[in-house]
Amino acid sequence: MSQSPELLVIGHRNPDTDAICSAIAYAEFKRRTGALHAVAARCGDTNERIDFVLNYFGVPAPRFVADVSPKVRDVMQPEVVSVSAESTLSETLGLMDELGIRAVPILNKDRVCQGLVSVFKMSQLICPAPNRLIDSRRVVASIANLARTLDASVLHATRAEEEQELVLMIGGMAAESFATRLTNYPPERLLVVVGDRRDIQELAIKGKARLIVVTGGLPVDTDIIDRAREQGVSVVVSPHDTATTALMCRTAVTVKHMAQEKFQTFNQDEPLTEVEPVAAGSRFLAFPVVDERGTTVGILSKSDFLKKVERQLILVDHNELSQAVPGASQVEIVEVIDHHRIGAMTTVQPILFRNEPVGSTSTIVADCFLRSHVDLPQPIAGLLLAGIISDTLNLTSPTTTPRDADILKQLEWRCGVKAAEFTEKLFASGSVLTSLPPPQAIVADCKEFHEQGRNFSVAQIEELGFDQFWKRKQEVVAALEEYRREKGYFFSALMVTDVARNSSLLLVAGARAFLKQIDYPSVEPGIFELEGIVSRKKQLLPYLTHCLENGTGRRAADAMVSQYEA
């Protein structure tokens, strides 16, 4: 049975209370209606107010996901087939043949890659090119590894663990010819492969060869073994015939002698879009995948790039990719649950897109439970209550609808919490301007928009009174302008809302010509008083869009940019 793809229920960047609460609740709804693999996620930090809500109802924060674009970890093979530097060529070939792989990494005890060994590299040793025929007789191995590779019986061995470069000689000729050839090589490097020919065995012992390998599992005379021991000549008996034994001797070499020490690794969190062209242009067959400590955690082959990344998204409290978790455009979006304007987003196939003109996404999610008669746990009901209160300022925002009020009443009963009492606790739970430095405070609840060919941002901070803002005004104004410059926005707006008075202050960093179109009362340059304005979605955003439309015919817009940059 195939594994279900990862299904993340996730709110927008710089999530607010409604985004977090609706993500948790909708993931719960999906699990209770059959999607057991649904997981609540977030792509931004929580704040004091969100933490208060989660702690109040005893629910953990959603899983943090910074980026959902396909990564190396999504397609790599996590079960790493590896060998050690002391593994023999025979053992490595057997492993690769059994598993049908063409390259393996050589790992040390800390699982750090020391090199790669491939079928191609090993074939060069076993079948050397015509200009390197001498290599066909070169055996770099210890007697212990030779015996293990041949499954040989050791009759006598000296310095069995010592690795040497040996010269392979087959004792298949007349004794006189063999005696002559013995003198061509240093005896301490000779590996003589012979059958039960006693005359050849005696000559090899007399010449003090390093090792005699008797083939075919044939018996060796006792006096031959005794003489070999006296001369310091090692003797083993191979169960294979002479041709097979000679070939297998060359596979007793350890893989450290044929490792590709220059190789390409990838980090498990690297985006596939960046890694694929590098891998495609590489001569390597496989690529070790490492974590931040350099530990090998997977192996990547070129065929792995053909795998489909099984990750799906459900977007809550937003529907524009500019506000979505990074990488959202590269994975499958299967649902959208939202109450904002519909932006530009295309999908490969039809999806469930539920967008309703209510005051909170939490209202829509609660309605999913209620209409479907799905059991609504008390903590989840509490989160949904908090989401509605936060987004509608306890039903006082102009975005509030009768459905918000009706569902809030039902949630009060289900979670046993009075909305009015909770509202006081919620908005007293933390001031963003007090708990965060200005550069972070201005993006705690910030959204990006694209209108009339211009990118801009609109953020909102909800406070009890404006005291904290006036204390930090200069820092906030400077941070807003720096943020606008850094992002290259046409303008950046910040709405500071007093939830007690249902009123706001508007800060705008941008071209002077654009600021002149804002006809709300000016408190200070770039700061406007918005009496009775509390909704970014329903009141402020349409107003700013209208200002943008009126002032940014192509020529006027370019003139504004030129004036500002000048």
Produce a short descriptive summary.
The chain is α/β, with parallel strands linked by helices.
Average pLDDT number: 89
Give the low-confidence spans.
552-566
The outline comes out as elongated
- The rounded Rg comes to 37 Å
At the fold tier of CATH, the topology name of the domain at 6-70 and 310-427 is inorganic pyrophosphatase (n-terminal core)
Q: Pairing-aware structural class of the strands and helices?
A: alpha/beta
CATH architecture heading of the domain at 6-70 and 310-427? Alpha-Beta Complex
Spatial ordering of strands, largest sheet: 3-2-1-15-16-17
Binned, the helix content reads 25-40%
CATH class term of the domain at 6-70 and 310-427: Alpha Beta
Mind summarizing the main beta sheet? 6 strands, parallel
Total count of helical runs of at least 4 residues: 22
Give the CATH superfamily of the domain at 6-70 and 310-427. Answer: inorganic pyrophosphatase (n-terminal core)
Q: In whole angstroms, how far apart are the ends?
A: 64 Å
Share in β-strands: 15-25%
Number of strands: 23
Explain this structure.
It is a single chain. The chain has 566 residues and is an alpha/beta fold. Among the domains are: 6-70 and 310-427, inorganic pyrophosphatase (n-terminal core); 432-565, DHHA2 domain (Diaminopimelate Epimerase, Chain A, domain 1, Roll). The chain has 22 helices and 23 strands. The chain has a six-stranded parallel β-sheet with strand order 3-2-1-15-16-17. Strand 18 (446-451) and strand 19 form a beta hairpin. The longest helix is centred in the N-terminal third of the chain and has 16 residues, at 17-32. The chain starts with 5 loop residues before the first strand and ends with a helix.
